[in-house]
Amino acid sequence: MHLLGPQWRDDLGDGWNTRPVRLETLEPGSLEAARLKATGYDLLVVGHEYPSLPSWRKTWQELGSDVATFQHAPAFQHQPDAFDGIRSRLYCYSPEMIERYGEHRPIPELAVHLGLHEEEPAAVSGNDLLWLGRIDAEKSPHLAVMAAGILRRRIKVVGPVFDPEYVAQHAHLFAGDHVEMVGELGGQAKTAAFRDAAAYVYTCGRTYVEAGAAVFGESLRAGTPVAALTWRPGTCADAALCPRTGSIATLDPAASDLEAAHALAAAIEAASQLDAADVQEIGMQRFDPVRHFTALASRP
């Protein structure tokens, strides 16, 4: 396996084969393009935007390799001929994403994210609640804070603030005695936050479409059940979870924040009863990196 493109991280360590080239900047027929072709790549796993980029496609077509990409944005517009479902393949996480990108022959597949130094230890029964993500209206962590308050349980809010105005709007909630604003975590600290939680609480805004959330796999692989709030069926939560790994509250978007918080609180109570070891065993199977990348590398 080779990593193609600029090396943005300097902490990968030894054992990685890197080639700092970008296909979209290469001239078809150039010496560097010929060198790439001579390598004989079977598969390129790329960001979802590249198969619709004409300059990238010109070089890729010379290489003769397959291409696989995961749709991580809910509104990106692909070129009509970007995917044929065989040599060029688009993978989508949830039923609603499959429907949104139906014209591009999408293949259902759960996203698996296993970051550097984020290997999971054995599951334990946690204590407090956890919410993790970017802090803004699209992710709506204030609903998780409200649900935790209803249950009189402590909750850690982990992630960077993307929208200070949103935080200011709900400052009275985030300043609650039961809330710990942790900031952004990565690596072992993030894994520990998942492992030590009694439940991971997932929320999103009423109109937000989650294209492929990493948090479901991260939570289940750590042995932490998920309590999810959704606003319609067919979301990533529906694709990722089952009754043995979590509980989903699906509400009409017309419901008030307070109604949503009460429904989420009930889901938290249900999820908190699940067995951590069982959740982890299922999570390791469902979000197995080897299985995931074998799927990406296989033609239908």
Which helices and strands occur, and which strands form pairs?
Blueprint: E1 2-4, E2 17-19, H1 31-39, E3 43-46, H2 54-63, E4 66-70, E5 88-92, H3 95-100, E6 107-108, E7 129-132, H4 141-151, E8 155-158, H5 164-169, H6 171-174, E9 179-183, H7 187-195, E10 199-202, H8 215-221, E11 226-230, H9 236-240, E12 246-250, H10 257-271, H11 276-286, H12 289-296
Parallel strand pairs: 1-2, 3-4, 4-5, 5-6, 7-8, 7-10, 8-9, 10-11, 11-12
Helix pairs in contact: 4-10, 8-11
Organism: Microtetraspora fusca
Protein name: Glycosyltransferase family 4 protein
What does this structure look like?
- It comes from Microtetraspora fusca.
- By secondary structure, the chain is an alpha/beta fold.
- It has two domains: 2-109, no CATH class; 129-284, Glycogen Phosphorylase B (Rossmann fold, 3-Layer(aba) Sandwich), CATH 3.40.50.
- It is built from twelve helices and twelve strands.
- It has helices at residues 31-39, 54-63, 95-100, 141-151, 164-169, 171-174, 187-195, 215-221, 236-240, 257-271, 276-286, 289-296; strands at 2-4, 17-19, 43-46, 66-70, 88-92, 107-108, 129-132, 155-158, 179-183, 199-202, 226-230, 246-250.
- The strands form three sheets. It has a six-stranded parallel beta sheet with strand order 9-8-7-10-11-12, sandwiched between helices. The protein has a four-stranded parallel beta sheet with strand order 3-4-5-6.
- α9 links the parallel β11 and β12.
- It is elongated.
